[in-house]
Each structure stands twice: as C-alpha cells, then as structure tokens.
Design brief:
Elements lengths: L3 E10 L3 H15 L3 E14 L2 E14 L4
Length: 68
Amino acid sequence: MSVARVTEISATSTESFEHAIREGVSRANATLRNVKSAWVKEQYVRVSDGGISEFQVNMMVTFVLDDD
C-alpha cells in the first residue's frame, strides 16, 4: 500500500500558462520525491500597461511518501 500527499504550489512565467506549469512541475520534481501528478487549480494573469505581463498558475501536486 502506498500513501500520497498533496501540496499546493504557485508558479509564474512571463511567457505563458504552459511555461508556468512546466516550471512549477520541474521545481516540484527537484524538491519532492515521487511526484505523480499535478492539477491546475487556478490561473491568473497580471496586466501592465494594457497587456499581460505575467502568467500565474496555482497547482495541487501529488507525491507518494517513502515507505519506512
């Protein structure tokens, strides 16, 4: 039997939502072991001078805990 944990992370990009997602998942994989999935919970944009200046995603990341 395995046990998983879910944690929420936020990632930003000046390029796109997809880039923000990739950066967030990459960073989660660098920090957490056994990352299995990510669910994009929310998406936001920041607007500056009439245009989009930043894309932000809030994600729920699931990772399996190590066995004792």
